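Sequence in, structure out.
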Amino acid sequence: MPMSRPDRPLRVAVVGCTPLAAKVIDLIDELAELVGVVGLHPLLGVDKSNYDGLFAFARRNPGDLLHTTDINAAETITWLAARQPDVLIQCGWSQIFGPDVLAVPRLLCVGVHPSPLPTGRGAAVINWRLLEGGGPWGNTLFVMQRGVDTGPILDFEPFELEPRDDARTAYLKVDRSALKMLRRTIPRLARGDLSTRPQTGPASRYPRRSPEDGRMEWDWPVEQVLRTVRALTHPFPGAFFETRLGRLIVWQASGHHVEPMNQARGSIAEIRSGRGISVAVGDGAAWLELVTPPGDVECWADEWAGEAGLAVGDELVIPSHSAAIR
């Protein structure tokens, strides 16, 4: 229901701990009155992918950033309430907002969720969608309520997850679409227009992921290997194979089908300088291009192969597993 326009600028607080949060802070500083920012304490951020501690903002605005380990802690809520925000924007925060946090802003809490709600509620949404193959997708601006990702929709911005996208480029699309929606929505909220529409259609939910979920198997099809690498590359922990030399993390890969494959799955089909190493998998071969070898740092796969003395025909499979995947 539209309300009368306030006699002062819209007061906005931001809660976030990702690169998107830093971009939203700059945008709100342009469109409204930014009254405070809550970020995730570095003690927790060290274990979070895609983390931004918002230290650049803290250097510019000392005293306006609170690092917290718990958004629902009494001291966090007290700090936020003292800022008297009209709107609180959550962007990139994994802790569920309790009722006391939701009650802090005068008007509403706004959440950014990288899916076309109610499809894709939950966690690790972009990673899961890339694992599924991408396609038409989008970003939703919604009103946060007691249920997780269930509130009415303020705005939606579509985008496409293309075959060339990986986790990094996909999140750039998330960030750009979020800023487009906020540019439309913040002036509307400042005018007192709080209109929304309900979430409609079938709902789906993605579960949380852990680094161990990045394990790949040598008998997977080429496309499944490539999707997994793209979905879990930087800034995430990476997809990996367990090899006889140890864990091999793969950051960049491409595929080609070879019929028939003469090599056993998990064996090296080709080593090409400037290209990488080709390994036999379920239905062909995958070029492993950028890797972190066991006990090493990130490098080109062909560079590692040369230094490790690997040759065409060598099996990377752990010996006890090789018979099971031939």
